[in-house]
Amino acid sequence: MTAEILLDKHKVRRSFAAAAAGYDSLASLQRQVGLELLRRFPLHGRDEVIVDLGCGTGFLTHQLAANPLRQQLLALDVAMPMLAASRRNYPAMRADYVCGDAEKLPFADNSIDRIYSNLALQWAQELSAALLDFQRVLKSRGSLVFATFGPQTLVELKAAWSVVDDYTHVNDFHTADQIEWFLQVAGFEGINVDSVLYRSEYSDVETLMRELKGIGAHNVNRKRNPRPTTKTQLQEMIKHYPRQGAGILASYEIIFVRAELSA
């Protein structure tokens, strides 16, 4: 079972840095999923060190900071403009900001009590290695809570592009079973994995594409077409995208995960 997704990490960083300014106006799904993640797996300890991994513009961090329990909150993101946007959005938020890569955490061994992450770990190039690093930094009885995209995400867009050519136009994502296996191999226990399919409505395919670009969710797979998409190719894809009444639907498979380390 492979743990690697063929992502261009430099392109991931550039995409999210460029998206920081307009991200919040388009990220309604991310906010919805973040609230559901906290509803399923709320904070419960006092005097703990909590990391929001891939904090983006700070929505989930702010929700965590609003908890009345006393905690040290660390907000980490690979894109400095995202951290700057979070500071602007929540100037009074009690959190320390860290610019770093989720796959190479800049934290000491056994120093973190809880890791939360909302729709960020799908950009990990090698998830199994990242989970091993999470296991390194977490204390005994520490926990990992995250939401990530599953392979049914944007299936309609994948199908429409498959008529045009054989390149990868939508990023690949791990299945729930793969994620559970990677967690077990990394030494996690008490694993809870649940997949939920969300569907969002759009007036047309162009609106969907603008949203994906606006939140930094570009196609960063290394099997993407190395040449720019032509107008003819784009029109051909749009022609084959399934209509739903006056608009279109886009599917997003969200995998909710909680896992723990033993004492």
Can you walk through the features of this model?
The protein has 263 residues and is an alpha/beta fold. The protein has a domain at 9-151 and 172-198 and 252-260: Vaccinia Virus protein VP39 (Rossmann fold, 3-Layer(aba) Sandwich), CATH 3.40.50. Helix content is 34%, strand content 24%. It has 9 helices and 7 strands, in the order H-H-E-H-E-H-E-E-H-E-H-H-E-H-H-E. The protein has helices at residues 9-19, 28-40, 59-65, 80-89, 127-137, 155-162, 176-185, 205-214, 231-240, and strands spanning 48-53, 71-77, 96-99, 112-118, 138-149, 189-202, 248-260. It has a 7-stranded mixed beta sheet, sandwiched between helices. Helix 5 (127-137) links the parallel strand 4 (112-118) and strand 5. Helix 2 runs parallel beside helix 3 (59-65), helix 5 crosses helix 7 and helix 6 (155-162) crosses helix 9. The longest helix is centred in the first third of the chain and has 13 residues, at 28-40. The radius of gyration is 18 Å and the shape is globular. It starts with 8 loop residues before the first helix and ends with a strand. The model has no long low-confidence stretch (mean pLDDT 88). Residues 51-146 form the Methyltransferase type domain. It is an enzyme of class 2 (transferase). It catalyses: malonyl-[ACP] + S-adenosyl-L-methionine = malonyl-[ACP] methyl ester + S-adenosyl-L-homocysteine. Belongs to the methyltransferase superfamily. InterPro entries: BioC (IPR011814), Malonyl-ACP_OMT (IPR050602), Methyltransf_11 (IPR013216), SAM-dependent_MTases_sf (IPR029063).
